[in-house]
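Sequence in, structure out.
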Amino acid sequence: MRADRLLSLLLALQSRRQVTARQLASELEVSVRTVYRDLEALSSAGVPVVASGGPGGGCRLMEGWRSPLLGISAEEATALLAAASGSGPLERIALGDALAQARLKLLASLPAAGREQADTTASRFHIDPQAWFKPPERVPCLAVLADAVRRDRRLRLTHASRSGATGAVDALGLVAKAGVWYLVVRSDRGIRAHRASRITDAELLPDSFDRPTDFDLAAYWARWTAEFEAGLDELPVTVSLTAAGLAALPQVLGDTESAARATPDPDEPGRYRLVLRFDDREAACRRLLGFGPDAEVLEPADVRRQLADMAHRTAARYRTAARSRNATDSMP
């Protein structure tokens, strides 16, 4: 649409001191002649466009003029620009281009004196929404789910763990949490959250739905996650860690936050005490075994005994294998 192109042209001019018509034509994917026609349209609308030919010439806005697109402070602009750096989830639902355009509009709305400062300051912050050691989950139906959420369309879903498709559901929202997508839907069973990667098929139905006026996605998600975490049957395990073990928490457990809760071990200088939580005793032992001697379970006693037994059997296995290998190597 021409209106969109004129706005893009205005933003391109406002975000730079001067640009050639050929550069604008390339960016807008139109001819140079179309650029000049659009510049005339902007000028007719009261935008003070200045165009000069020859070496060093180009197109620019009159010095000091800017479009009042937004009234925003430098601090607010810096915060928004920094938030826009973590665009990974939005790119996966085809909103990455929209975010880039919004970023351009935001920069263009700032006074020339504050534009460069806000952009430079924002570039010193980066948001990485992906968890350690975990690539983004494959979500085969993500595009369909996002389309339904945007357009208030109903869906028929098929889950990997269920036989057959569900009845129609209302797609209320999508949530990205640490690289994992969740679809929030309303059905005759109420409002629920589904892990999007477990949806193997999503059929976009022709009918739309009326969104509940009192539904707030962020508030629902806060309640749902709190209830989910409270419902987990977690096993607390107190461990004593060396400094190396503490540093290995992200690598062994994918845990980047627990280390901050560690306290010096009162019984062993140079070691740290920490309470870690696991789904059950088996999971605790298998995962803690990865620390080797850098982690010692203090309690519960049954986890300590089982982990010691697993470590003993592991060491015995390697001793047996080593003796067998040595015997083989000594044979003539």
